[in-house]
Structures are given as C-alpha cells and as structure tokens.
Fold these 2 entries.
Entry 1:
Amino acid sequence: MRKIILEVAVSLDGLIEGPKGEYDWCFQDQDYGLSDFFKRVDALFMGRKSYEMMQGMSEAPAGFPKLKEYVFSTTLEKVKEGAVLIKKNIKKEVEKIKNEKGKDIWLFGGAGLTTSLMNLKLVDEISLAVHPLLLGGGKPLFSELTDRIPLKLVDTKTYSTGLISLTYHLEK
Amino acid sequence: MRKIILEVAVSLDGLIEGPKGEYDWCFQDQDYGLSDFFKRVDALFMGRKSYEMMQGMSEAPAGFPKLKEYVFSTTLEKVKEGAVLIKKNIKKEVEKIKNEKGKDIWLFGGAGLTTSLMNLKLVDEISLAVHPLLLGGGKPLFSELTDRIPLKLVDTKTYSTGLISLTYHLEK
C-alpha cells in the first residue's frame, strides 16, 4: 500500500511558519535529501491555503517533481485541471488513494489537513527538517491532536549547516 | 564565565507538558547523558511553578545532584533555606551569578523564565531530549520570544529508544 509521508521544515521550537507567516528561514543552499525523497513520491496532498499559495507562484520551485495533486477543502468548488478536489469523506477517499497503484504520497500540509489525517491515523511517516533556529512564535506543525501519538525513530541525518533531518514511523 | 544551559525534555512537537500538565511521557529507563550533565552544573535556575512542584516532592529524584537553587518570582516573599529568591533586576542579578566562581548553571524552566532569559540573551546552550512522540497539545518550550534566535548545532546523540538529544549553542 502507498504510504503517506509528512515531509516538512520546522524550527527547533516546532513551528512551520513565523508570526507573520514567514518561511524565509528555510535553508535553500543544498538539497537536504529532497531529491531522494522526490523519487519516492508521485502524489501531493495539500490543504486549501497551501494550494492557493502554490497557485500564486509563477512556476514550481526548482527540482520540484511532477506530482498528482490532491486538494482538501470544504470551501473550494473547483481546482485546476489535472488536480483532484476532495471535499468530504476524507477517510474513505484517502484510503482509496492509498490502495491505488503508485508511489508514496507527500503530505505537504498545512496544519489543519495534517492534523485531520493524523487524527484519522492515515499518516505513515514523518520526516522533519529541523532548522537550527527558534522562531519563538508562529504556526505549530500540528494544531490539536486527539491523542498522543507514539513514534518510532528510523533515521537521522545531520548536515554541516546544523540542519538535522529526523524520520519517524507511526506505530499502527 | 559560567554558562546557562537549558536542558529539558520535549516532545517532537516541541511541547514540555501535555494538555493537562502531564510529564509522564518522559523516559526514565536510562540515564540519557544526565549524569554527565550533572557533573557540569552546580546551580539551578527555576521559576515559581517549578519551585513549588519540586517543593511538593518528598525527596529529590534519584541521581539528582546537590545544586544551589535560584528561584525567579515576582510574587513569592521567601523561599526555603539555602535557596535564593530573585524578584527583580533579572539581567543584573543573573550576570552577577554568571560572573561568580562556579560550575555551569542548569536552567530548569518553566516556559516563562526560559523566555525571559532567552529574550535577555543570557542563555548559552540549549540541550533538548527530543522524545519520540507527539503530545499534540500542551505547553510549548517557549512562550513568546521577541526575536528569532539562530542556533549552532554542536552535538547529537541517538538512543536505542528513539530519544535523540540535540545540543545547540546560542550565537552571540
């Protein structure tokens, strides 16, 4: 079955955005394992805000792979050609996608979608690129989880810039 | 000069307590480098709540070193014999203590004191015992920092239980 992988950059204090929505602190100077990660996935899950942010970009960031996009929103009525809008029955729809043939799925965020999928126990792996800074305020990676979630640390990778990548599997 | 070291257990989502103040998730099965850490310090900084919590314990946790205790509180009128109460002029008082002869100082918390000392740029090192779980809600390690704080990763240690210890120096 295809895995859902949350792969995201965080500050050491567990925030994904600064107080004004900033993500300019994310290191861009090297690959940080992303090109290997991109080989594993062929689909992207994102919430409405992430979708709208990416729509606002003139082109995809360099090295960004061609991915089948799934947009989760209760308010959008349509999404761009080729993308799939999921408005309801999240659990059923996501389980159907996971059972389809294909590579793994990149859960891109944001916090609301991530929290929903975590609470439905649909996420298989979490890979955090922990940046060496404290943002001190801003948006946490998760909003409210229903329960504690135990994790299994499966990999760590330290880079010369002080970024450390931590990969966990979710225990089922 | 003596260093102030924030050494604390956190969940992967950057929380130091669960939604009801729980810290039962902190691993107790092995030393996790604490006895080496205890050799480095001879003093303890803590806020009022941490002080009151420790006062409520019948005895110190096993292996807990003998430390000079400094309690930071604007509301307490006195503290136990041997301990020092700091009510105001935090920056001046802390700088004085840092300049005294002695080993390093353990900044124990809580979030309010930690945030104050971080904002005053008095903390020298942060060592987080990142536990392999998501608490999903509760108390963040820091409340509101005034500015972003860049860090320098100086050490990582991974344990068989999935706990990873991350040590950073604060750039001055």
Note: Residues 39 and 119 of chain B are 27 Å apart (CA to CA).
Entry 2:
Amino acid sequence: MKTVKHRRLLLATIGIANLVWVINAQNATSNLTSPAQLSLMPIPASVQLQPGRLPITSGFTVAIKKYSDDRLRTGIARMVRRLEGRTVLTLPAEVSTDEAAATLVVQCERAGQIVPSLNENESYSLEITDKQARLGAPTVVGALRGLETFLQLLQGDHDGFFLPAIRINDQPRFPWRGLLIDVARHYEPMEVLKRNLDAMAAVKLNVFHWHLSEDQGFRVESKKFPKLTTLGSDGLFYTQDQVREIIAYAHDRGIRVMPEFDIPGHSTSWLVAYPELGSAPGPYKIERGAGIFEPALDPTREQTYKFLDKFLGEMAGLFSDEYMHIGGDENEGKQWDRNPQIQAFMKANGIKDNHDLQAYFNQRILKILQKHHKKMIGWEEILHLDLPKDAVVHSWRGPASLAEAARKGYDGILSAGFYIDLMFPASQHYLADPVPENISLTTEEAKHILGGEATMWGEWVSPETIDSRIWPRTAAIAERLWSPRNVKNVDDMYRRLAIVSRQLEELGLTHEKNYRMLLRRLAASENIGPLLTLASIVEPVKEYRRYQMRPQTMLSPLTGLVDTARPDSDTARQFNSNVDAFLTDAPRFALNRSELERTMTEWQTAGRRLGPMIDQSPALQEARPLAKDLSDIAATGLEAISYLSNGVPATSQWRDAQLATLEQAAKPKAALEFATIVSLRELVIAAAELPTLREMSPAEWKARVKAQAQPPTKQPK
Amino acid sequence: MKTVKHRRLLLATIGIANLVWVINAQNATSNLTSPAQLSLMPIPASVQLQPGRLPITSGFTVAIKKYSDDRLRTGIARMVRRLEGRTVLTLPAEVSTDEAAATLVVQCERAGQIVPSLNENESYSLEITDKQARLGAPTVVGALRGLETFLQLLQGDHDGFFLPAIRINDQPRFPWRGLLIDVARHYEPMEVLKRNLDAMAAVKLNVFHWHLSEDQGFRVESKKFPKLTTLGSDGLFYTQDQVREIIAYAHDRGIRVMPEFDIPGHSTSWLVAYPELGSAPGPYKIERGAGIFEPALDPTREQTYKFLDKFLGEMAGLFSDEYMHIGGDENEGKQWDRNPQIQAFMKANGIKDNHDLQAYFNQRILKILQKHHKKMIGWEEILHLDLPKDAVVHSWRGPASLAEAARKGYDGILSAGFYIDLMFPASQHYLADPVPENISLTTEEAKHILGGEATMWGEWVSPETIDSRIWPRTAAIAERLWSPRNVKNVDDMYRRLAIVSRQLEELGLTHEKNYRMLLRRLAASENIGPLLTLASIVEPVKEYRRYQMRPQTMLSPLTGLVDTARPDSDTARQFNSNVDAFLTDAPRFALNRSELERTMTEWQTAGRRLGPMIDQSPALQEARPLAKDLSDIAATGLEAISYLSNGVPATSQWRDAQLATLEQAAKPKAALEFATIVSLRELVIAAAELPTLREMSPAEWKARVKAQAQPPTKQPK
C-alpha cells in the first residue's frame, strides 16, 4: 500500500509522463491535463498535478509580496513579455498592488546574492489553483527559476490559454550547472552571448564559463596590457564595458560569469603580443589551425609571474565571480624540453618532469589568485599532490577521475560526456552523470561533486551556426544537472526537448531559423526541398574527425553542408524508431510500412533531383556522393521492405550486395554521415533472415536480426 | 541603322533582361550568360555583357591600386567574407600586392568625403574579362557601391563559380536615397539597425533617416536634458556612444545618418520630461496609442527656443550630417487654439492662423540650426512663403507638390509612394517616381529633386518583424532611386527581388527566417503546414486600417498572424499569374490547370486541417473565419475550373452564389485579406461567360471577363 509520502517520493523520481499517468489513473473523472501536454524541462524535484486550471486572459496580473527589487521586477517583466508573445494578449505592464486578485503572486523572502555564487539558494515552490498561482522563493534567483517553470506550464485549448493546477517544490541537484562558450577560436558578437544567456536561464543553467583566450585569439581588453588585443585578437574582442554589460546581463538572470584564461599552454595569442613571456624566442603569429600547439608561457622566469600578477589582478577587478579558471590543459611541454634555461631551472630546483614544472607554475598562479581574492579552477591536469583543497578540478576525463579527486577532498565539476562540440546526440549527453550509480562515494565525498558544464569549443562554429551546436541538446544536459538522478527516460526527454527547442526561439535563438537560411545560401535558391531531405538525415561526423576529413582554418567560412546538418537528426531518429516498430510487427510487417515507403521514396526522388541542383551550385559539389548514397540506400530499403511485406526471403547474394551498398554509404563524405544506416542494415538482414522467423518467436527473431545488423567492431590495425 | 553610341544609350535605358537578349542576338555563338541568370539590383546605368567568364576559385585575390584606406580595406574584407560564405571557399584574408595576378583590382582615386554628403561621387566602373576584374572609382564610396555589384554578379554552374565578362558604368540617378526607420513608436536594438544598414548598402541606399522622437518615446540620450530619456523613453534609448557607433558603422558603408527630432507636434515624450515646454499645462504621459495627438511645443515662449538651442546644439555636435530633420508634420494646433497666451501672442504679432504660427516657429528653429551649422529639412508642412531656399522639403503628398516646391526653387525629396508601412506591394512602390514622366520640369527645376526615402513608420513593427516590413520591398525602391527612370519592368523586378531577398539573409536580415518561427510560436507546434498555406496568400490590410480593425497599443505583442503575413504575397502573385495564363488559354483551358487544381486542393485541405490546429492554439483563434474562407474560396475556384475545362457554362445562380462567397471572403478578418480574390472572381465570371466565348476572340473575351471581375467601386456614403 502506498502512503501519500511514498507517492510523493515516487513522483519526485520518475519522468513526468509516468507521473501524470499515475495521477490520472487515480482521478479519472477530474479535468486533468493529458500527459502529452506537460513539457517541463528540467523536470522539477517534486511535481503534483491537481484537478483544475488557471485561465490566462488579458486580465492577467502579477503581484509581488514581501521582498522586491529591480532584478525581480525586470525578471517578471521579461516573463510577461514572453507570455504576451505566445498568447498575443496585451497584458498589463505594471505590477498589480491587489494581491488577492492577482493571477500570479510572487513572494520572495530576500534579495539573495547580488553577485550570484555557488551557495545561492535557487529553490522555489509553485502552487497553482484555478484561482491563482503562487510562486514562493527564498531568493530572487529562486523566483527567477520559478518564473521559467511558470512559463513552461502555459497550455492552450479550445477554451483558451491556461496553466494546470499543480504543486511544485523544486531545487537543483547540483549547484554548478554551466555552459562553456569558447569565443577565442571564433569570436562571438555580444548578441550571440546575450541570447545564449537567455536560453541558459530558460533551462535553469547558472554558470557562463567564458573561454576568453586561446592560441587563436585573445578576446578581452586589458588596459594594462593593451597589446593582448591590438596584436592578438584580429580586432575581435570585448571591451571592459562590454564585459561588464555581459556580467550584468547574466546576473540579472541569476547566472554567474566565470572567465577562463588558459595558461601556460594554449597561449599563442598572448605571445604574439608579449613574446618575452614565451618558452621559445618567437616571434609568434596568431594560430589559424585547430589542434594542440607548442607555445607555452615560461614558468621559470619571474617576469612571467609579474605579468600574470598584474594581468590577473586587473581581471579579478573586472570579473566579480569568486572563481577564475586558469585552463591548464594540453600543455605538452615541447618548448620547455628544448629550452636550456628551463631545463637548468628544473635541475636546480629538483623538478623532475614537465608535470611537476606545471604544478610549480600552478602553485605560483594559485598564490596570485589568492592575493586577488579568487579561487582557482582548472582542467584536471592541475591535480597534483601540492594542489590546495580549495582549488576546483574540472574533469574532461570522466566521472571516475572526478570521484577520485572527490575522495582526495577536491571539489570538482564534470565536462566529460558534455562535450557538445563532438556532435553526439542529446541522448548520450543526457545519460552522462557527474555521480553515476556505479560509482560509490560517501555522502561527504559526493558533496565535492558540484555539477558540470557543457563545453561549446569554438573551432567550427560561427555566429550563424553556434546556436544549433548548443541547442537544443544543452537543455538535456541542463536537466541532467538540475533534476533528480533517476529522471532519465530518453523518449520523454526528446518529446520535451522538441517543445523547449521551439520555445527558445522566442528568446532570439537561431538554431532552428538559420537552418533553411543556410541551405538556401548553399543552393543559391529558395527551392531547397531535395537538399532539406538530404540534410535532415545526415549528421556531422563525431568527435574530432571533421578536421581530419575536411581541413579548414579558423578563417574559413562555416557555411558548408556540414555546418547546416544537425548533430542529432530528429528525422533519422523517427525513421529508426519506425523501422524498429515495423520489425516488431513480424511476420505481418504492416506497421509503419506505408510511412517507411513514403519516406524512402522521398529519399529516392530527392537523390535524383539533387544532381541538377548541385550542377547549378558549386558550393554543393561536395554533396554529390551523398546524393548518390541517398538514392542507393532508399532503393535498398524499399527492396527490403518489399521482401518482408510479401514474405519472400531475400537471397544471400542480394543481402551481401545491399550490405556492401550500405557500407559504402556509411563512409563519411563531406564530413557527414547518414544516421539511418543501422536501421537499413536491420531491414536488409531481416529480409534475408525471413526463413528463420518460422523457427523462433518474433521477439527472438528481431533480437537476432538486430544483433547481426550492428556494424562490425573495427579491427585494430 | 544603330550606331554603337545609340546602342549604348539604348542599353542604358532598358531593363537588363531585354538588354541581354539584344546582345545575345548579336553574339549567338559566344558563351554568354542567359538573361535569367543576371540579377543586378539596382540595375546599373550602363551594362554591356561580353563573351567569357572570370572563374572564382580559392585562388581569388584582391589588389588595391592608387588610393587605399581603412574604409576601403574593411569594405573589401566584408565583400570577401560574403563571397566565402556563398562559395564555401577559403579565400586569402590579406590584400594581394601582385596587381597583375589579382582576380580583382580595385582602383580608387581618393578618399572622398569621410562624412558622406549629398555631393559625394558614388560612380564606379567595373570591367570583367576572363582574366581579371577591374573596379574603378573616384571615391571610396564609389568603390563600395561597385563591390556590391561585383558580388551580385557571382554565378555558379557545373564548372564552378564565376563572374560573367561584363562592362558596367554606373552612377545613381538621385543623390538622396534613404530609408527612414522610426525607432520611437517601437525601439529597435542596435543589431537591428546594423543589419538594416548592411542591407541598405547592399542595394546602394545612402541615407539612414533616424526618426528618434515621437509622442510614444524619446530615444537618444541628451546629457544636457537627461530627463528626455529617463522619463520619456521607458529606458529604451541609444546612448551617445551608441549613436556614434551607428554613425561610424553607416559611414563605413557610405551611408549618411540624418536624425529627426519631430517638432512642434509629435512631442508628447518631450513634454513628459519637460512639461513647461508644452502648450497646455500637463502633466503628460508617454502616449501608448497610434494616431495624431494634441501635445505641441509652445512656439510663443522664449524658454522653448532656449531649450531647443541647447538641445539641438548638443545634437548638432553628436550627429555629423549636414542636415537635421525637424519633422513639422501633423500638428493640428488644438492646444494652441485653447491657450489664451498663445492666442494673445498671435494677435499681438499679427499671426493669422496656426499655419503661420508654425512658420514663425520654423523660422526660429532655422536660425538655431544655422547657428549650429546645420541645414534644415522638414515634412512639407514647413513649406511657407518665408522658408529660405536652403531648407529641404520632404514630401509625403506626392510628386506634384514636390515639383511645385522645385519650381519655387526648393530642394525636395519624395516619400509619398514609398510608405512601406502601408503594406502595399513592391510593384506599387516601384512605379512611384520622384520625377514622373507626366510632370514637366526644366532641367534646372528637376535638379532640385534630390531623391526619396522609404519610410518605415514604427507603430506595428517589433525587432522580430521589422525586417519583413522593410525587405525585400525597399530594394525595389532603391532601384527606383538609383536606376534610370525607364527601368520599370515589374516582372523582371520581382524576379531579381527574390534573389536579392535571399542574398540579404547573409547579412543577418530576418525577413525570411523569422517567418516560420512566428508561425511556429502561433501554432505552438513545429507542424505548421496548413497555417503556412493560409499565411502565404493573405496580406495585412493596407493603409491605416489595421489599427481600426484590430486596435492595439504600443505595448501590445506584435506576434499575431497579421504580423507574420507578408505585405506582398509571392504565392498569391504566382496564383494570379497562373489564372491569367489559364484564361488566355481559352477555349482549351488546359494551361496551368493541374497546377491550379493542385494549389486549390491544398487550400481546401489546409482549411479543413486548420480547425483542430486552432482548437489547440488560442493565439490562432482570430484565424478561424479565415480558415473557413480558405476552404470556401478553394471550392469556388475548383468548381469554376471544372466548368471551364469541361466547356460547360455555369448558371447565373451559381455565379451569383459564388460571387457572394468571394465577397464574404474578401472582407478583411484579423486585419488580413486574401490576395487572390480578383483572380477567383475572374474564374467564376469566366465560367458563367462561357457562352459569349463563341461570339468573340479569346482575347476580347478575356478582357470582358477581367473587366467584370474588378471589384465594384465603393459608393461614397
């Protein structure tokens, strides 16, 4: 027997879709929302749907109770503008003074921290009845989080707009939920940062990790060392006024702004300006390639620390966050190895290798940061015996190394699994976890794991494409970092992700609206139908293969088909799911059959029509082999379906020929790959395996087919 | 017999499409571009296509000969970035020093004016052979104009990207080619202005008329009178640094920035801050409505002029253009009539009416502007006996009143016919002309007509929608103001407009990419098919009917269907053209038949499917009657086509019933109207007129049908 308490616990820990079913089943007669309509992301810690609904009309008003300030009022005003945008209703611009009559009452206890910090209380409660919505929060930031939830609850039907009656108690699982944007490989204008801060706030992320310096560019004005930008930035940098503008914008949304100055490696652009800081004589040129480069600061000279003391001191005054990220990654020390003075220094000081030398450097930097009242954070390379316990370790290796650091008493955040530049699907990021179930930590140790950050490394993003590399996938990561650990229904995540993605557009995000624009430019035409078909089922190659397959520099245009295609094809996922259901329908093979045939016939037509399009548009030249593949895989799929639905087994010759076709199509071209190959392999193998279907249950048979369809594991060379 | 000179004259004065045919006919064997591929807009003064083509490859380089400066180099760099964007080729970032080998040689004679002025020489020549392109210009601004032409010439085919060999000599017809953006009714963020400046440069417009103050808001920081923005702007204004940023951005593109401070009327926001300047005691509140309002500055008090002297003096220092616009329109003088002190002043000074009082005011303002070294421009209300000859008259009434002013010796510019906020199609603006053929002026008089300006009044535009109200139609106006008078082939204009519209996207313009976004938000869904069908054939009501039919305030959301629909439906124009051709095919009625049937069947389906969509999305509620109309007009059209193609005459009862249906559908709903009604009337009348087709030629018959199908002229009440 479930007590109320038990049920609440249960509700807190299962996906919202399941949850609503539970309640619906128990309140079959009440006027409840159907599960398909609730679309909260991230899912709150505790949700209870109630009977009833609160209508949203042009009489909508907001009252503020207890604490109020500009940050809260402008936050409410922004929410109201978005509500107006969706409802096309003119709502009162002013806050109401009539609490009893207000549609929404916001009750905030205190300001909270003006400079948001790791310890900020972000919790809130939201209680909506058919009379009124009441949002309660200890701090303004908590209230801002609740306002986003409020807006996500908006629904509409024949009777108008409304919010379902509901009780929500919510707080984040982790206090550090970040997005790194690398503006150094490619500069991003102010409006790109602002709209991404808006999007972060919409999914309750709270740390903007601003990756400001790299081999390829130095992006923030230093008044003490102006050459950093006059020589190291191509003129593309943020003035200090602009930095302050971004910080204020972020703080208004309850988001911390943590700068990163990556040292001692990744520092070519510093050395372009100040070669005397380098470990080799120079001169240096701004790096235009992608990869790991040799230039590194010289850790053995006092001049380096004098410079950094002055520079980091200046930045400590500019950036108000308590943490400063010093990078520290990927310094291979090749310049150090070749520099006799550095070698002599190491010998004289008993420093045995480059790792220890970098530890020495970090110790010095740590002292500088402490002097300027900043806590140090760095990539996990900084972890060393001498590292003091108030430094934070930023893991790109994985939860195991993070747990290891936690056991040693270090705070840490995870980015392994959240590298959104690697073009993996949202599902994969969604299931990565800073504290996965298979890692055991004491409660005390687990507290050291502060959260995580999605990392938008900037090698292959432009202001036109960056949003589509960040969103919507980062919303899934935001849910991982906010919601209870066992919220992990992938299908339901994708259902809600599609809705959140659309809602992000109202904040100015361009991930969706630039898609067709990019295709129109490529095609030099507004008639992009066949190209859209192709683009919708290919994905950029994963990991770091793009650069190998399609080398470019940081100055190259990012306007190719690979820049248009999404990392997580919705269309392919739908196709794969349809194939799965079709095979489940063995031996009838009727489910989704006409849908699959229609889809693949469209591929065939598109493949044929792409030829003339490519002839007219040389920018599409690299898509020519993909167009051929598209026709080929469509023909393969259609034949397989024909065998299956007619119950005629395919020959092994046919199967081998088709698998060869698919293998050819599976090879990436133009740094793109089809996201439908495994499903097509399943169809081919199933057609050839029809005779074995008589010998086993349909479920066993399907498992057999799917096992065979997995691509062969690559042989080590 | 045509001499070469004659032919060049001819070439200069006919549309490019015709021109290419002429040359093609004479060079039948050479490898010339087909007319459908040239897409210059505005059409240059003189164009001669040559045999041959200049390939554009990754070896593309630019050399600069003679004069060079930052403005030229950054202009070239911007052009190269766009070329890279379209071609997906990585091109050298640096200017080449090898003139002989360079793909493009830019030869500029001198800087020209750093603050662009009315007298700037904007001419250029462009000669492209299969070896090299040479762009020559007396000034940097001329070179910038030529670079835009260069980019518009880019084409692609099976052999790659190229520019056709060509000789162009070009200069503008008018020196004043402007776009007014009203940022007072609705504030527009910096990036909106910047991308519109980019678009202006792309179509060779050269005056940004910045309408900065209104009853509804005061948008520029005054350090002398800070209350203008602290009280009069809702916090939405440009700082002086931002103004300088916009001016520099515009100057870099050869665009003048002329501010307008509209006085003595349209001044409520000034009076909110400084009620003591008003003609009635106040207090005043920022106006939220649209229309003409009473508040006006008091022209009888010295305090007013002291204020304006200080304020306009400050602005004269901020804005570097030689002209300052003082508005002067739509002051009905009601406050003046009711103010006994003003009445007494008029009596004492022999001022007989409000028009004369405003003339007195203008005289005083003129002296203030002269003191601050500015020339005055104002709406044509400022025209008065005492107006000195160096003031410029800005006409909203039409070319006749402009010519009248010119005959009196006043310079003038035209905006009548270019009011893009009134939602008329591009064709209508395109055929408006500052000096139409039917107005006779001496050469000397005609010189007074400096050009014109498109006016984007801001009552019903937001940052999301403004681009779609300006573009692409303003490109047609830009052509009117740049190209020779007899370039006026409307069909060819629309062909090129579609291409230019797409190219504007690369500059960040959102007129196209926000379209589906707005529909997705309205539908709260990504499945917008039926809504897209409806939206594609309706247009916002013309002139000022929107406000009457669908009253809103300046604080209302601009996210409704009327904000999404375009002022100039391409789809409707295509449908209407198909109907026209179908009727021309009498008595066979086969041409375009299946296309028309397909289209209207799609309307029918969409009309049906819209019901459930609207049920789910209350924001679409106002579209419900339009959905019904869509089904109804589709049924009407399909029946008519069936009669016609079967050769069965429709009865007069049927005709009357269908015309009644169309009349019902023709009534605007949700401030939208179908742009296909006249064509549908033609189909209905044609079906009923089938018997008369035996009595006359098909052409006569078609004319008869079309005459009957014109909507009845409205009876005066």
Note: The longest strand of chain A covers residues 46-56.
